[in-house]
Amino acid sequence: MQHELSIWELILEASLLVQAVMLLLVAMSIVSWAIIFQRRKVIVNTAKDTLKFEDRFWSGVDLARLYKEISAKGGNLLGIERIFHGGFREFARLRGNPNADSATVLAGAQRSMRVAHSREMEKLETHLGWLATIGSISPYIGLFGTVWGIMNAFTSLGSVQQATLAMVAPDIAEALIATALGLFAAIPAVVAYNRFSYRVELLDNAYMNFMEEFSGILQRQSMNATGAVEQEHPARRNVE
Known about the structure:
This protein has one domain (about 5-230). About 85% of the residues lie in helices and about 0% in strands. The chain has seven helices and no strands. It has helices at about 5-10, 15-55, 65-70, 80-95, 100-125, 130-155, 165-240. Helix 3 (about 65-70) crosses helix 4 (about 80-95) and helix 5 runs antiparallel to helix 7 (about 165-240). It is found in: Cell inner membrane; Cell membrane. Keywords: Cell cycle, Cell division, Cell inner membrane, Cell membrane, Membrane, Transmembrane, Transmembrane helix.
């Protein structure tokens, strides 16, 4: 009775090139799962912080007070908090300049928010490109190992006069393991990449909507502040 080889025995008896392909695919799978767990933690925490901040922002709290609360966190600002902090800081700085009109003040705040938004998006998208790369090339690397293994299996048949399926079955089986490992590395990476890209897009939309709404609030405050100054000037001239 012929001994049935286990998967582990098939891997050990594979050619060096096929073993190298399998080792590469296992390493890519480990890297993929490490990125998946790390990115999931970052994106989930950022989404929670965004909802928490928006609830606080729209609760009617004074913006200057909210700015002080955010500033107290120091360098631990994330996502929408950093966008608000950058925009309001620039708004307060420019509004204190008597030579800056409302358009200049608003443009400066919007520019600061865009810079903060760009940096936060870069943080959210970190390593997502690796998931896309692993998901796209892993099947082809596994297929290469499979083709090489099957080619060696059929090449070995040239040295025998009567070939049987039992002679090439182990070689074909070990070659197909490379394809399986390629799919094992690719499928989670593709699923995670699509899911994380969708979540990042939702956060991006939330950031953009907040920037537009916050810009409207700053514009009204800037115009009110300008109007107050304009009302003071005639009074001073009357006194003179």
